[in-house]
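Input.
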Amino acid sequence: MSLIKSNSRRSGEMNAPELPERVIRLLTNAPYAHLVARSESDRVLMLPNVVSLHTKDELSRIHGLGPIAIRTVEKWLAHYGRRLRRPSESLDTIICGFSFQTKKAQRPSRPQSQREVYHHDIGTARLAFGF
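Output.
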C-alpha cells in the first residue's frame, strides 16, 4: 500500500496526497495541536495549520512517525502551500502567518468551503474517528 495516493478525476488534475489514518491521528494529537483548535475534529479540519507548527525534529519524536511518514507529511503540506517550521522560527511567527494565509485563501476565483479543500482528509478522518 502506498503512503501517497494520487488519483486524478480529470486528465492532468492531481488530487491532494492522502495521509494514512494513523498519521492523521498522530498529528491531531501532536504537541502544538492544542494551539490551533481544542477539539480533535476541528484539528482535522485545520490539519495543515497544526502540522506547520512543528519542526521535522519534533515530528520525529512522535512515536509512530518515521522518516518516510514525515516525508509524506512534507509533500502533503506542500500541496496546501505550507511547510514544516524551521528550527530557527518561533511559533509566534507561524501562528501570525495563519491569519494572513486565511485572508489570502478567502479570495479564490471560485468560492470553496474548507470542507471542499480538505475533503480527502476529512473523509479519511471520519473513518478513523467515527464522525
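Residues 21-129 form one domain.
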